[in-house]
Specification:
about 270 residues, OB fold (Dihydrolipoamide Acetyltransferase, E2P), four-stranded mixed β-sheet, 15 strands
């Protein structure tokens, strides 16, 4: 029996770097906040193959029809199966002016947790998305990875190029980037891989500009550690689990300036 979809308004906050897909050419893990203040995961979405009028941005409201079941075998409570053809953009993206006020009005109201608390919540009710405000960010480790997609994806690319619709270039990032950070209740530092789309696109831009993957990786670290996690930033991590495993990843960052709270005698 086909499920009747329901229309939902979602503020997009998370978009990960695309990965190949047998059924959709490529997919982007997308997540956001509903008008009721609940997390929702929209998967699958073939973002780069959507018409321009359906290509949303982070911190933009969209309307989309979703089915309550997630992708096949995905039992995570926030997962919904969207109907990408139903996506409708609702106005401009929320502004980052005035200390990200428009964005903070929504994000600051949401529950924040530590990594330990998220792990316990997943064990209790399959919670798989949440916000962590790290006590301190110690490092962004750069780890070498394969420069090529695994053979089955390379074969898929060739097949789609020959027989399918126009295939858009999708470069494999030859590194993985891992945040090392502590929460208020940490016994030892946590390490979590960052899969933010903006990290991947920054790497590609810098690799082209600098002519060196190694230099591009260091440029990413300078931005995502040195700038986004500075002392004057109120940095949060949007975190989620990797399906079908329970590993928690950093899916995106929220980095408004810290709000100055004057003391009694200031």
């Amino acid at each position: 029996m086909t499920e009747t979809p329901e229309k939902t308004n979602v503020l997009i906050t998370v978009m990960t770097y695309p990965h190949p897909s047998r059924g959709y050419q490529e997919l982007v893990c997308t997540a956001g906040i509903t008008e009721a203040g609940d997390w929702i995961r929209l998967y699958p979405i073939d973002y780069r193959y959507r018409p321009r009028e359906q290509q949303f941005h982070k911190y933009q409201w969209i309307e989309v029809e979703v089915e309550r079941r997630g992708a096949k075998n995905d039992k995570r409570k926030e997962s919904r199966k969207p109907r990408p053809e139903s996506i409708r953009l609702l106005g401009e993206r929320l502004s980052s002016k005035n200390g990200w006020q428009e964005r903070r009005q929504i994000i600051d109201k949401l529950p924040h947790a530590t990594v330990k608390e998220l792990v316990r919540a997943h064990e209790t009710d399959k919670t798989s998305l949440g916000i962590v405000r790290p006590k301190c960010v110690l490092d962004l480790e750069i780890r070498p990875a394969s420069e090529e997609w695994k053979p089955e994806w390379e074969y898929l690319f060739k097949q789609m190029t020959l027989f399918g619709p126009q295939q858009k270039p999708l470069r494999k990032i030859p590194y993985t980037f891992h945040y090392v950070f502590e929460c208020d209740d940490s016994d030892k530092p946590h390490t979590a891989m960052c899969e933010d789309w903006e990290l991947g696109t920054l790497f590609l831009h810098e690799a082209d500009r600098l002519g060196s993957d190694e230099a591009a990786a260091e440029s990413v670290k300078k931005k995502f550690l040195g700038e986004l996690c500075r002392e004057d930033k109120d940095t949060r991590f949007f975190m989620g689990t990797l399906f079908p495993y329970n590993t928690w990843l950093v899916l995106g960052l929220f980095w408004p300036p810290k709000i100055h709270q004057p003391g009694l005698f200031n």
